[in-house]
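Subject line: Sequence and fold of a protein, written as structure tokens
Enclosed: The protein record, placed directly beneath this head.
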Amino acid sequence: MVSIKTKVVDVTKKDQVEALAKEFDHVDVLFNVAGFVHHGSILDCEEADWDFTMNVNVHSMYLMSRAFLPKMLAKKSGNIINMASVASSIKGVVNRCVYSTSKAAVIGLTKSIAADFLEQGIRCNCVCPGTVDTPSLRGRIQAQPNPEQALKDFMARQKTGRMCTAEEVAHLCVYLASDESAYVTGTEHIIDGGWRL
């Protein structure tokens, strides 16, 4: 029987992250998934919006990786998975300025960690979804002045005629966390139904 321990931590707070890391002797897989989507161009992005988005989307991964990587290095094995996005250095997306910038930084962070620690048995990859049908997305759609049109606009850009499901993204994450992907590191894994094409 497996015992699962649950704890809520603000991953943007260094003291909370370091306290969490002290509770573990070893971590096989670290999945950095906390994120925030800001809507707007650079002209709609106030400095506070920029700082908040970068803090949640990038700085949290920096803190978590720095806290847990030494535990992986001690065992000469470990696997870090970062949540990025197709809206990044992969594809420019309207009204996603700071979000896309932050996710491009995640791709860079992923490749840097992979290159620096490859020979010490550490793998690092990132997942780059397109539009995923989640409660967060539905909430952002409902927050628009015309939610019905906002949903139509999201659907119009889906070349497959549907959005990605959270389960499909989870399957990719399970693959990256498993031994089946043992020879995979430093890569961005796109799951967007061809949206970037």
